[in-house]
């Protein structure tokens, strides 16, 4: 009976993994098909695999430039958001500040605003500042959508740290900043790292602001750049699928390398001692 349940469990697990990975598998199989086979048949596999679509993805469009733009914007956004969110979350959760619930409620409300509702005022602001078609022109709106998320997540991690550690530091004469730097931040490092990954991915995948603010092809990010692969009369699905695989690889590698820290951050404080 136990063996049958185990087999059934693995069958369900295999089906679940296949369903989750099916879009990525299909995109990869499409990317290695010859162009005439993409619409000529719906067969899973091809007898003539080719990397022409990958070559075209780099030669037909400046994909490397798109990757560089996304990397720069996402990295700056992550560093700034995590830095500000760390200090803000510490102040909200650990210091005697009135109206903490209202502040966190406002942060949560700000994170729930749809991008389409704020795109117009932000576009006007960026235009008046003369920051269109620049990294700064995207970092500013990206921070506006990632900072509330980072503050809300980090606040939950800082709340779980025992207050006795902070009280001991105060008795030893440590200032609030010293307590944050030497005690609170190191203990919350798994949560900070997890939040940084989530912020980076959110900035990497953002499309609406990147499409609206940076109209110059030299400043486009990956999501917008790939959407511009289509021409007036045709849509090169081979090039698009190849580019999709290429730009997904950095995120997959990032998650695989730091998966232990991500899991540690997500499960931090889940079990009380």
TrEMBL record:
GO biological process, one term: transmembrane transport
Pfam family membership, one: BPD_transp_1
Family statement: Belongs to the binding-protein-dependent transport system permease family.
Listed PANTHER family: INNER MEMBRANE ABC TRANSPORTER PERMEASE PROTEIN YCJP (PTHR32243:SF18), MALTOSE TRANSPORT SYSTEM PERMEASE-RELATED (PTHR32243)
Topology in the lipid bilayer: Multi-pass membrane protein
Segments forming domain ABC transmembrane type-1: 67-258
Keyword list, A-Z: Cell membrane, Membrane, Transmembrane, Transmembrane helix, Transport
Protein name per UniProt: Carbohydrate ABC transporter permease
Spans traversing the lipid bilayer: 7-29, 66-90, 102-126, 138-158, 183-204, 240-258
Native source species: Dolosigranulum savutiense
One GO CC term, this protein: plasma membrane
Subcellular localization(s) per the UniProt record: Cell membrane
Keyword Cell membrane: yes
């Amino acid at each position: 009976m136990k063996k049958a349940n185990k087999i059934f469990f693995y069958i369900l697990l295999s089906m679940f993994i296949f369903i989750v990975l099916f879009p990525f598998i299909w995109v990869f199989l499409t990317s290695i098909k010859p162009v005439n086979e993409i619409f000529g048949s719906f067969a899973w596999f091809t007898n003539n695999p080719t990397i022409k679509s990958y070559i075209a993805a780099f030669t037909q469009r400046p994909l490397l430039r798109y990757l560089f733009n996304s990397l720069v914007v996402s990295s700056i956004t992550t560093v700034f958001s995590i830095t500000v969110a760390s200090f803000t979350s510490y102040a909200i959760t650990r210091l005697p500040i009135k109206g903490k619930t209202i502040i966190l409620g406002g942060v949560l409300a700000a994170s729930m605003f749809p991008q389409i509702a704020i795109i117009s005022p932000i576009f006007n602001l960026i235009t008046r500042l003369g920051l269109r078609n620049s990294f700064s022109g995207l970092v500013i709106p990206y921070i506006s959508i990632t900072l509330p998320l980072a503050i809300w997540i980090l606040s939950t991690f800082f709340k779980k740290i025992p207050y006795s550690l902070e009280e001991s530091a105060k008795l030893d004469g440590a200032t609030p900043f010293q307590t944050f730097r030497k005690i609170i931040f190191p203990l919350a490092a798994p949560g900070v790292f997890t939040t940084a990954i989530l912020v980076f991915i959110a900035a990497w995948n953002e499309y609406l602001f990147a499409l609206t603010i940076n109209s110059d092809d030299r400043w486009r990010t990956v999501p917008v750049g790939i959407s511009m692969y289509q021409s007036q009369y045709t849509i090169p699905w081979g090039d698009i699928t190849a580019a999709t695989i290429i730009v997904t690889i950095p995120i997959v590698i990032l998650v695989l390398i730091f998966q232990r820290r991500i899991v540690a951050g997500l499960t931090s404080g889940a079990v009380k001692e």
